[in-house]
Amino acid sequence: xxxxxxxxxxxxxxxxxxxxxxxxxxxxxxxxxxxxxxxxxxxxxxxxxxxxxxxxxxxxxxxxxxxxxxxxxxxxxxxxxxxxxxxxxxxxxxxxxxxxxxxxxxxxxxxxxxxxxxxxxxxxxxxxxxxxxxxxxxxxxxxxxxxxxxxxxxxxxxxxxxxxxxxxxxxxxxxxxxxxxxxxxxxxxxxxxxxxxxxxxxxxxxxxxxxxxxxxxxxxxxxxxxxxxxxxxxxxxxxxxxxxxxxxxxxxxxxxxxxxxxxxxxxxxxxxxxxxxxxxxxxxxxxxxxxxxxxxxxxxxxxxxxxxxxxxxxxxxxxxxxxxxxxxxxxxxxxxxxxxxxxxxxxxxxxxxxxxxxxxxxxxxxxxxxxxxxxxxxxxxxxxxxxxxxxxxxxxxxxxxxxxxxxxxxxxxxxxxxxxxxxxxxxxxxxxxxxxxxx
Length: 439
Fold this sequence. Notes:
Layout: H1 2-20, H2 23-33, H3 36-49, H4 54-60, H5 64-72, H6 78-93, H7 98-113, E1 117-119, E2 130-132, H8 143-162, H9 175-182, H10 184-200, H11 205-213, H12 217-220, H13 225-240, H14 245-269, H15 283-290, H16 299-306, H17 311-325, H18 330-335, H19 345-364, H20 381-388, H21 393-438
Antiparallel strand pairs: 1-2
Protein name: Permease IIC component
Main location: membrane
GO biological process, one term: phosphoenolpyruvate-dependent sugar phosphotransferase system
């Protein structure tokens, strides 16, 4: 194990550092990390809405619309916050006005991703006449579009600054006023560019990015091991790129997932044994056997982080443990981060492929039954697997085995990343001490 860690330090780390220190990659990482407080707070509200206790569910049902608001305006519009964060971070790296760049990128993203819908007349007492934006267009499904929009907007702004094509104010004008006038020309160009592309030419950037990344339907529709592994790989791969994997895959695979679990439930109701149901690769198979703690089986990483020597990783791990138990892992994906992280991205993809293969062969050999129920995503995995396979103890045990396997796969990569983080924290501490001594 130590030899493997040493090999990664000597061969993987130089490549990872070069990739990770690239200006635009750093901006993406910083912008996503800036959303961490929002995702953590939003995660807890999601947990509170999905506690699997019948009496509790009945009690909070009348309040669900109100309880849903915090999560909708945190994780639900994550791409909106990420746009501002990424643009601001990139602007700072160029020593540009980060506030102006962030606002211009935000404008460009809204023009591109969230065209308003106009309602001409009141619809009973529910909707009044006016213009509305679909919040779903601002969520993590649009995150890749947000990244591209933010980077392009800042580069356009930088071009005009470098070429000195700006409106200059007299000396003595406050910087905030001067910066506003400087942003006028690049702001107009950014607005016109994205407006023409989206609304005159009709080119949907987010839709285009989804299309070129979306795999063919036929490959993912089957019930074979290859189809299951490909689905798992693509979901994890998209997450590593900063794209909401299930949201991208949803239009393709969700109808088949829904059909598969419906067929299983119907067959089980008609007396078919849970070991002989029609479909293995339902969404529930992935949810309970593979996504332990969320996509990428990140609960294992959370546990490792909880005992880390790094203060940052330890704090984030402890904050993320409770959401992770209920399969909410946005704080880990965007806070660690796993997005655009070539070190932790490897086990994030590899571990689920290993556990998917094991779970598949145990299922076809009748050691573990198939899924015959559809439970909410916020159930702890061992309990949900136990209930969803007609109370199979072996299913619950498989969850524990998969967790242990994932823990072992994550460990060497985590140690490399932990060392990197410790070095960073030591440098920051030394800088702080040097600053104090200088004073």
